[in-house]
Amino acid sequence: MEATTWASNDSPTQDHWIDVTLPSTRQLTTATIYWALNGSNYMTSQQVQFQYWNGSSFVTAGTFTYPGSNTDHSTITFPQVSTSRIRFYQPANQGNPLYPTVLWVTEVDYGLSSSLPGDLNADGSVNALDLQLEVNVILGTETNTTIKAKADLNGDGQANALDLQQLVNKVLGL
Ligand SMILES: [Ca+2]
Ligand SMILES: [Ca+2]
């Protein structure tokens, strides 16, 4: 099977990275790298830092480390960050042990970990407490950025009556 992969420049002295500008500010708690298959070996790197732009510089949120053998993908989770730009950053010579001078991947992914949609207060269930928070966000009395992000159920960038309707339906089990 063939797949499109992306390989960095081959250099023993250069750091390598993948820089992604997101369409809008996102809340992220997890990232995954699908490593490229080179012959019979996945090119699992020894170290890749997952970084986010904090407005003035890149900050490392979590680090992919070599799991001890080659693996097709690696996933990390980290405390939630809010950002519009991210970077997968591999320091020089931290590629696969067989080929440390490159960063070679098939796909990268990132997002919120599997928190329950509509669970605004993050207590593990979706109920009237979350509805109250949703209303508070819509009214502007709830300003917590994590809660506000969760209040935008349909992901259109704002919390309003459409999101409230979705949440009511969830609470009612529709
Ligand atoms: Ca809840
Ligand atoms: Ca919305």
Classified by CATH, the class of the largest domain is Mainly Beta
Give unreliable regions as ranges.
none
At the fold tier of CATH, the topology name of the largest domain is Jelly Rolls
Give the CATH H-level superfamily of the largest domain: Galactose-binding domain-like
The number of strands is: 8
Radius of gyration: 20 Å
| First-last Cα distance | 42 Å
Tally of structural domains? 2
Describe the global form: elongated
Please count the helical segments.
3
CATH architecture of the largest domain: Sandwich
Helix content: 10-25%
Bound compounds, each kind once, are:
calcium ion
Structural class: alpha+beta
Structural write-up:
- This protein has 174 residues and is an alpha+beta fold.
- The protein folds into two domains: 6-111, Jelly Rolls, CATH 2.60.120.260; 128-172, no CATH class.
- Helices cover 18% and strands 39% of the residues.
- The protein has three helices and eight strands.
- It has helices at residues 128-139, 145-151, 161-172; strands spanning 6-7, 16-35, 37-38, 41-42, 47-53, 58-65, 73-90, 104-111.
- A six-stranded antiparallel β-sheet has the order 1-8-2-7-5-6, with no helix packed on it. The protein has a two-stranded antiparallel ribbon with strand order 3-4.
- Helix 1 (128-139) runs antiparallel to helix 3 (161-172).
- The longest helix has 12 residues, at 128-139.
- The protein is elongated and about 55 Å long.
- The model has no long low-confidence stretch (mean pLDDT 92).
Structure described in brief:
The protein has three helices and eight strands, in the order ββββββββααα. The protein has 174 residues and is an alpha+beta fold.
